[in-house]
Amino acid sequence: GTLKRREHLQEGKFFWCQCKRCCDPTELGTYSSAIQCPKCRGGLILSTDPLDQNSPWKCQNGNCAYIVTGKSMLLLVDTVFKELDSIHCNDVNGFEVFLEKYRNVFHKNHYLCICAKHSLFQLYGRSENFMIQELTIDQLRVKENYCRDILDVVNLLEPGLSKLRGVIMYELHAPVMIQATRLYESGEIKNNDLKKRLREVIKLLRESEEILKMEPEGSNEYTMAVAAGDALNRIGKV
Ligand SMILES: [Zn+2]
Ligand SMILES: [Zn+2]
């Protein structure tokens, strides 16, 4: 979010960032600071001047134009940030409750929601009681959707060979692949659909391998690149 990020910049370097993203109230179309209008339901509230944190925020729905002061916005974001920060890093349910609670408050790409989803997509598939093979189809879909939400944002903010993109694409391949095989085995999808889904899996693995193999050997990311390569070999033999 612009406010938080620029507050940090300001603390450290005593200047206001003037980059294209900070000057753009939609933050390059990601809406990562936007909140949903409590008055008209459907309008988005954006800063009237992202370079001035005291400036008011305004509903973009012209018929509504509901105003929130900069001070109230800072207070809201700060309070919710503390709440998010207090959730234990392994607490799947805690993050889910958090997202549900603020589903109608923040834009789905708000950085506080993205932060919770980022924790969650890593927990689904890895933590106790949530190992990837134990996940239900619904839980796999949830992990898939969180990965896709974050990938959409990262594609706008850090396109190209960013490490985060590589990690998310690797994380995304697993739920897509497992759903595809399970649905095929149970006869819920046909051969064509299976092939289409596997083509996406291959694309995700190839790109994540390409990105992550540039990381230092022995790092988690490099290990993911190796795992991506192994998975590609296995799929190639099917
Ligand atoms: Zn900036
Ligand atoms: Zn409104």
TrEMBL record:
InterPro entries: SET_SmydA-8, TPR-like_helical_dom_sf. This is Protein msta. It comes from Pseudolycoriella hygida.
